[in-house]
Specification:
Rossmann fold; about 140 residues; alpha/beta; four-stranded parallel sheet
């Protein structure tokens, strides 16, 4: 069986796109190849690593990647899904050959303010939203 290919894109590839990639691999790795990349790759968000570990998924060894590098490599995806907030979604490049382009808006954990505990709580909320979205999407595309 050929696996479908999905690419998740956000600004820095440090949080939201990393979480969506990890959840798709975790929930449907038998049916999907998932990757993630950013417009301006940054550093993996340590709070995101921590809350994903709480969910039983270790992303601590992941590296951030550039969406433009993937584009230059000529990679093709059945789904290109932007996960930045609405203000950033228009900056994402168009991938040639993408069968379907989707946009799912999630708050950016790198912008969360407050104590460490408050940032953890907000990041857990985004993580849980992402997990629910992946689960719903998988039901819709079966």
């Amino acid at each position: 069986m050929n696996k479908k290919k999905a690419l998740f894109v956000c600004v820095q590839n440090s949080a939201r796109s990393q979480m969506t990639e990890a959840f798709l691999k975790h929930l449907a790795g038998d049916r999907f190849e998932a990757e993630s990349a950013g417009l301006e790759p940054g550093k993996l968000n340590p709070v995101v690593v921590e809350v994903m570990k709480e969910a039983g998924i270790d992303i601590s060894q992941n590296k951030t990647k550039s969406v433009f590098d993937l584009l230059k490599q000529g990679k093709l995806y059945g789904y290109v899904i932007t996960v930045c907030d609405e203000s950033q979604s228009e900056r994402c490049p168009v991938f040639p050959g993408a069968a379907q382009r989707l946009h799912w808006s999630f708050a950016d954990p790198s912008g969360f303010q407050g104590s460490r505990q408050e940032r953890l709580v907000k990041t857990r909320d985004v993580r849980d939203q992402i997990q629910r979205k992946i689960e719903e999407w998988l039901k819709d595309i079966v």
